[in-house]
Specification:
Blueprint: H1 3-17, E1 21-24, H2 41-46, E2 54-58, E3 62-66, H3 71-78, E4 84-87, H4 96-103, E5 109-111, H5 119-130, E6 135-137, H6 142-146, E7 159-160, H7 163-166, H8 170-183, E8 188-191, H9 194-201, E9 203-204, E10 216-221, E11 225-229, H10 236-244, E12 247-251, H11 255-260, E13 267-270, H12 277-281, E14 288-291, H13 295-301, H14 305-332, H15 340-352, E15 357-360, E16 365-368, E17 392-397, E18 399-401, E19 404-405, E20 408-413, H16 419-436, E21 439-441, H17 446-458, E22 469-471, E23 480-485, E24 504-507, E25 510-513, E26 517-520, E27 523-533, E28 536-543, H18 561-578, H19 584-593
Parallel strand pairs: 1-5, 3-4, 5-6, 8-13, 11-12, 13-14
Antiparallel strand pairs: 1-2, 2-3, 7-9, 8-10, 10-11, 15-18, 16-17, 17-20, 18-19, 21-28, 22-23, 24-27, 25-26, 27-28
Length: about 600
Amino acid sequence: MTVTQRLQALRAEMKQRGIYAYFVPSSDYHQSETPGEYFRCRAYLSGFSGSAGTLIVTDTEAFLWTDGRYFIQAERQLSGSGITLCKMGEENVPTVEEYIATALPEGCVFGFDGKVVSAKDGERFAATLEDKKISLHTTEDLCGLIWEDRPPLSREKAFRLAEKYAGKSTAKKLSQIREEMKRQGADTHVVASLDDIAWIYNIRGNDIACTPLVLSYSIITQSSAALFLNDGVADEALKEGLQKEGVTVLPYDALLSTISALSPDARILLDKNKVSYALLRSIPDGATVISGENPSSLMKAIKNSVEIENLRISHLWDGVAVTKFMYWLKKNVGKIEMTEGSASEKLLEFRRQQPDFIEPSFNTIAAYNENAAMMHYKPDDQGGASLKAEGFLLVDSGGQYFTGTTDITRTFVLGPVPALWKLHYTTVLRSMLGLSSARFLYGCRGINLDILARGPLWDLNIDYKCGTGHGVAYLSCVHEAPNGFRWKVVPERNDSCILEEGMVTTDEPGVYMEGSHGIRIENELLCQKGDKIGSDQFMYFETLTYAPIDLDAVDPSLLSFREKEALNSYHAMVYEKIAPHLTNEERDWLKEYTKAV
């Protein structure tokens, strides 16, 4: 079916139930950022394949909201579909909540699948629509009724992550969580977010592409811990290992009935942003809900000493792969046929040669010239644009290793580029270096430091429609709350916490000129404690990413003395770490590409 036919089929189901408007988010049962194929209802109904977006369909109209990373892509993919693009954050564009509050007629029915809408959103919808006597229909997945070839729900095998990688046992993590439960007056803790569960129980799986997580739920009390998994996901060895740490494995689909059977006197800690509206509605009347962030969210963001040492190892091997790729690209562009797609495959080939590599941490973005103006560009099935010995190739990629998760972007110079492009490239470099070189007092949040990256670009009246950086998990989600860099608070992003020692955050400013070019340079930063002067605890960042930054588009005259020092120091570190793992030819080449400017 075409998008138009799918919307017609959806509207037929809506009409049968008297639903005026139907809401389709991008999430799964666990509010995951990148759900598995089974859950991609919004993409199926709209034709828009970006990772972030919300669709609302009425009997006569349809609207899709997405953020600035996807404006160009969404305009192209929605063309001719009859769906109106709503550019989030732009002037005179209503939010989803504003649209719902103003556009829905009094007394109508508003529908959504309560299993994939967060409890927070569900409650907000109910409160917003109450005055207009609008009722909610939340018990059916209407997309599932019309999606004939829907992929099955994933049931991949789970595995235990050894303590030499995780750094801490499940028993110790449960003890920490129970202490926090006690502090908050909770006797029960319900967890639905897959990354939290993976961290707590030291399990990983393959239910989401590029993110080694397991479809699961958990209920923790002061004396028990239950892990809900699909049949066949946990083998006997995994179950026995969990049982030794006081964890019982129960069926995945038994979660709601188990919650319904909780005591009406229970005091339940949960994160309404990470559990579903259906889950919240299943809690017995009389039970007290303590709404707050999962304790594990902050705990896992602060990497322990074992994880930190492992991360340095994963970034070393990842840097070797990226450096070998850069050498291959520079030596072969214009001499052999290559496309955006084949370049991505070559980089993956180099990563597969590295120790402990599992899979990419996300789908590689390899974007040539004007394609790089789309922050999350994806080439077509023919492999995308052909690469020539001119212009820029932006490559945003990463790997999942047993020793950690990596995320790196480099913009490679394939040949001659205009002077304006060099100005933009050098400014992005200055922005990245400015943030990575920061010294700051403990208590700062990402919002306090974002100007160090954005400032040089703002001086050129240029901005980028996204945050400057996001947290990165350990062998888990490449985007991890609650740390990040952003110029203003965006509540739904949950990336504005105090920066703590042990947090890992990306530093990735960029320039995106539609129809012309895109530039991004990204390193990962580990937050560390510096000197303490009196009561002032100073902090700094250790750069974890080791790969050369292409000097061929750098205009040294635009760099300050401090910026040159920072760049030269970084490249000296890259050479020291990466050179021993290269061939003689690659090592000689790297010496040239890490020379002092």
